[in-house]
Amino acid sequence: MRQPTRKFHHVVTASLLSLALLPPLFSGDRITARAQDGFPLPGIGLDEGVPPDPAPEMAPEPGDGDGPLLVDPDILAVEDPAPDPTAPLPTDEDMDALFAELAQQGGEGWRRAELDILRIWSRSGSLAMDLLYRRGEAALDAGDLTSAIGHLTALTDHAPDFAQGWQLRAVAFYLDGEFGPAIADLARTLELEPRHFGALTQLGTMLEELGHDRRALEAYRESLKINPHQQEATDAVRRLEQKTAGTDA
After folding, report:
1. Residue 82 lies in a domain
2. Helix 109-121 vs helix 92-102: angle between axes, to the nearest 10 degrees?
3. CA-to-CA distance for 60 and 167, rounded, in angstroms?
4. pTM exceeding the 0.85 threshold for the entire prediction
5. What is the count of structural domains for the chain?
6. Is 116 among the domain residues?
7. Apex CA 171: angle with CA 186 and CA 65, to 5°?
8. How many CB atoms lie within 10 A of CB 64?
9. What is the C-alpha to C-alpha distance for residues 117 and 99, in angstroms, rounded to an integer?
10. Are 174 and 190 in contact (CB under 8 A)?
């Protein structure tokens, strides 16, 4: 039931990312985009001999960084307590049901579904990793991008299959003006969770800022197919449809 969705979004995402990464982004005379191990990115050159970012000492303290930092402003007000990593993980059928409810246009059930999805995504399965994730959130809230990137790099190093860690680090890279690494992290996020509407909306924002209006429009539309209740993405689609009307594809 879930597999066709995964294949569909991989095709869409590959198309969007291949355009976003051509030409590669530069910071001074260095290419800033980096491929993660085992996840090559199309059409981009990589620095050789550049050492990886050092991971900070991992000693998260309970209570650090409470309160989520999310891309969509509509979700910023959600009060999301620290999840219980010992709670059973949902099945694929559970997630499919939540996404089906999220996609409903009417009623209020989608709000609960959205909150449940966000809570599930915020669970790494490890208390230490969850605390490190919240420490990265706290650094972002405080505007300390260097610390945020450091904490979240430690998180992605130690929990490489935790999609939300990659997405949050993409936010940090984006805010730091590092579009190449941000796009690479979004690629990894969508590889792990193709229905991550926050990552797709963020990708749309970045593509739009890079001047790729039609690809940005595709990203926003794909995000809204999953979660049609994102006002930011809805406004962006309206804006870009007007902007691209009558232009060549």
Report:
1. no
2. 140
3. 20
4. no
5. 1
6. no
7. 125
8. 15
9. 8
10. no
